[in-house]
Each structure stands twice: as structure tokens, then as C-alpha cells.
Specification:
The chain has helices at 132-141, 154-157, 182-189, 191-205, 219-229, 247-255, 275-286, 317-323, 382-386, 393-401, 405-410, 421-425, 432-451, and strands at 23-25, 31-35, 45-46, 53-54, 59-62, 71-72, 77-82, 97-98, 104-105, 107-112, 168-172, 209-215, 234-238, 270-274, 293-299, 307-312, 333-338, 345-346, 360-365. The chain is α/β, with parallel strands linked by helices. The longest helix is centred in the last third of the chain and has 20 residues, at 432-451. The radius of gyration is 22 Å and the shape is globular. It starts with 22 loop residues before the first strand and ends with a helix.
Length: 453
Amino acid sequence: MPKMFPGGVHPKDGKALSAGSEIKTAPLMDKYIVPLAMHIGAPAKLIVREGDKVLKGQVLAEANGFVSAPIHSPTSGTVISISKTSTTGEMLSVNNCIGPTGTLIPAITIESDGEDKACEPLPTIDWQNADAKTIIDRIRETGIVGMGGAAFPTSVKLSPPPEKNIDTLILNGAECEPYLTADHRLMLEEAEKIVQGAMITAKALGVEKIIIGIENNKPDAVKIMTEVAGDRAVVKSFPVMYPQGAEKQLIYACTKRRVPKGNLPMEAGCVVQNVGTMVAIYEAVVNGIPLFERITTITGSPVVEPGNWKLRVGTTLDKVLTLAKGVKKDVPVGKIILGGPMMGMAQYSLTVPIMKNASGVLLLAQNEVKQYESLPCIRCGRCVDVCPMGLMPATMSVQIEKEQFDLAENTNVMDCIECGCCSYACPSRRPLVQLYRHAKSEINAQRRKNSQK
């Protein structure tokens, strides 16, 4: 079977470690460190104080802008600390929280009272007879964001400009990132909720066509989703190729439409949503439950019992590893990654909390991790061959090293999806993705500066 998009790579799969593990629900923890920035956009605005009693599902912080999302309490208990910031917004070293990128982020620490008492759920919406605004407002107030990794507020994604002709909703069940199996298990165990969530989302978008894309290394998920979807959605199975689950690659695989360079999926008439997001939408609309927990894969060769867990946001990595029975004594850990090995972030602290987009916690053994000295580009072209976006990674990397960010922008560095294929294929072990991230931050900073003139 031919591959569905140009470029791509075949990293070590690693999924067998946890694919057969049914989803388990984590027990109640004694405390949770809940970040206020679990989404792209403005951090949520705090509405509780230290000493306040809170209930599970209660709003802790409100959306602070159009591209933002509220934060809800993962349990009942007491707010025992709130991160402190200076008058300039700089994080202080008191009650702070280390985020996945290693920077300090604002957070609330909640001490559980052991009762796990929930606040009154929001009323059920008769979504089949509701208008789009009612559904989208519910999605907004329950704090739902993209759970495949980007954490973009879902209500914004479901509110395209009226002139955009959206006709297709695509569910991302590809889960192409190595080692991760959370979406796989979700499709096996919560297929009806996924389909119902898709129907609700399609109603909000005003579309009838729903496509569910799944890589063919998950034949059991393809079978179950096809049976459950019936005539409500079309299930398409694709050859295994990373990054099949990237939005633009998945759109092309499902529809043969190409998203123009520098544009969003809506320019191709599509909206892409992760299957986990569909379950969250179902729970919000039908059961009135906000998003404060998610399915996360805990895996890797050093882990005693790899598996998939329903974790509440704010659960710290040390507690996560305890759920998996810790690490094997004879397998020293070389690296801890939040996410997968291709796009995840290496962690240096076990106090980092699980956030809404935490799809996995991966441990690699020392013999699976190597340190390389980056060498000059040898112009071999392997990065060009594997780039799924058709970019010129080698050229951009040299431009960025010379701080020629304007040239890198003209070479389309902003179109990079940071999938890591180029770094994976590079024989000189150049830190290509890191260079592109640096360039993007510099370009965005310059754009903000120009807009203020």
C-alpha cells in the first residue's frame, strides 16, 4: 500500500508495551498542582484565593480572552497555594510550578479533602435540536482544548469565519507518535462516545461529512470504530508512516485536499479534532462535566507496568510513575519525556504536572539514549527527503545559525510542524527542530514589535 503523503519516517514503534493495557482510573491523590496555562493563548484568569474550599469540577480560573480556556478543579479540597508573580508578570520563586518546557508557569495547588465531592453538573444539552452557539458555548465553558498535543481551545477551532466553507470534520485516530497508545485504547473502549462527540461537533460546525482516520497498525480499532460508526461516519485506514497524524497530512490522506502554505485547515474546508477531544465534548454536552482529566500512556522499557491511565490534571510525574509501579531496578533511566519520542519534551523534574494535552509519559533506558556532538551540515539532502511539509531544513538551519531570521522566514520556516523527521534522519545530528523553534520565537517577537509601531 503506498504512503499517503510525501516524506515521513518509520521510527521504532514501541506501542506493544502498552497497547494491550486497558484504561485504568488513577486513585485520588493527596494534592494536585493545577497550571493556569494548559492551552495555547492567554493564561486563564484566577478567581479563587488561598484558603478557599473547592469542589471537583468547580471553575478555578476563567478564560482570559477569545483564545483561552477556563480551568476546573480536579477534586474537592482546599486551595493551599497560588503561584506568585511580580508586577511585570515574571514568575517568582515562591509556590511556582515547573511546566513541561522547563519554565515557571502560574499554578494552583489543591490539597484533597479525600471526599472527591463534585459540584452540580451543567444541564444536559439536547444537542440534536440545539443551535451551534449553544454547543460551542458549552465547549468553551467546560475548558475543552485539543487533546492531541496542541491544546488549542476547541471553541475557537469550531468558530471559523462565516466566509469559510467548512464541509468535513476529520477525527484524528492515527496516533502516529511512537510508544503512545492512549487514543488506541480510547477507540477500543469508548467508541460510542467518540462517535457521539463527533456528531455533536459536526452539528456545531454545520457539516454532515465525518471521516475517522486511523493507521492500519490498529486493526482492532479500525474494526470497532467501523462497526460503531455505521453510516454516521466513514472510517479510513492508512499505512503506518510518521507523522500521519499531523493535521495537513491527515487532511490530504482523507480528502486529497492540500492546505495552502501558511494557511490553516479551514482553507481546505476541513476541521481536524483528536478522538480524545470528542470524548471530552460528549461528556461536556451530554453529562455536563468539564475537562479536568484525560487518558495518558505511561510507558517505556524501564517502566515496571506500562499502561494507559485516566489521570486528573495536576497529577505530578512522580505520582504518575508510582501508578506504573515505578522503574525496574536493573534498567537505569536515561530520559523522561512528556509526550512521545519525536515531539515530546524531555523533563528534568518529577514535579511537572499532567496537563490537558499530556498524551504520554515515556521513560527511555540509558542504552536507548545517546548524546551526540552536532556537526556541520554535509548537504546530504536526507532532511529534505523526509520533510512532510516539502521544506528545505538544511538551508533554514544554516540561515538560523547565522541569525538570518528574515531569510528563514522567506524559506517558510513558519510552515514547519516540528515533527522531528529532519532531526531523526540527519547523519550530522544537528538540532534542527530546536533551531526552527528559536527562529519562530524570534520572528513572532519581531512581528509583535512591528505591530506596536
